[in-house]
Specification:
Elements: H1 2-5, E1 10-13, H2 28-56, E2 59-64, H3 77-97, E3 102-109, H4 129-140, E4 150-153
Parallel strand pairs: 1-2, 2-3, 3-4
Helix pairs in contact: 2-3
Length: 163
């Protein structure tokens, strides 16, 4: 890939799925789908990007997680587990890689106005996808001598809860 596209300077892990139901109603297949996509997918992205980043002399890995990685909610067992796990993975990766000039950053948005997990878009109180993109750009544009390790992003006027 590097021959075709040039050096890799950044990885943005942004894939995610959510199956929202009580823990005792989740099937093993649903559990695996969420964990494989949200956590194992990020692990594989990091694992495959790091050699190219090291050859380049450094770079940035941005993991788009969720505030659900810090705040469990009813019906979110698989999703919460995947996002809590992503924070642990990213924290360990940051410690493993920072001395090699590879920065690892977590962007943790609250409620975003998309069709994710069956939500209906068009709810003005939620964050916009562009807000999350701006946070990712901020992380990527930090000067080489500095690293923001985590960005929590929330709507200014949520309808309820810690969103």
């Amino acid at each position: 890939m590097e021959e075709a596209f040039g050096e890799l300077s950044a990885l943005v892990n942004n894939a995610g799925v959510g199956v929202m139901k009580p823990v005792h109603e989740l099937t093993l297949e649903e559990w695996r789908l969420v964990l494989d996509t949200n956590l194992t997918g990020a692990f594989l992205g990091i694992r495959h990007a790091v050699p190219a980043l090291l050859r380049r002399g450094g770079g940035t890995i941005v993991n788009v997680g969720s505030l659900a990685g810090k705040n469990p909610f009813k019906g979110g067992a698989a999703y919460n587990a995947s996002k809590f796990g992503l924070l642990g993975l990213a924290g360990a990766a940051m410690l493993d890689l920072r001395e090699a000039n590879v920065r690892v950053v977590n962007v943790l948005p609250g409620s975003v106005d998309t069709g994710f997990a069956g939500n209906t878009p068009g709810q003005a109180w939620k964050l916009k996808p562009e807000d999350v993109a701006q946070a990712v750009l901020f992380a990527l544009e930090m000067p080489g001598h500095a690293m923001v390790s985590e960005i929590e992003l929330r709507p200014t006027r949520p309808t309820s809860g810690p969103r």
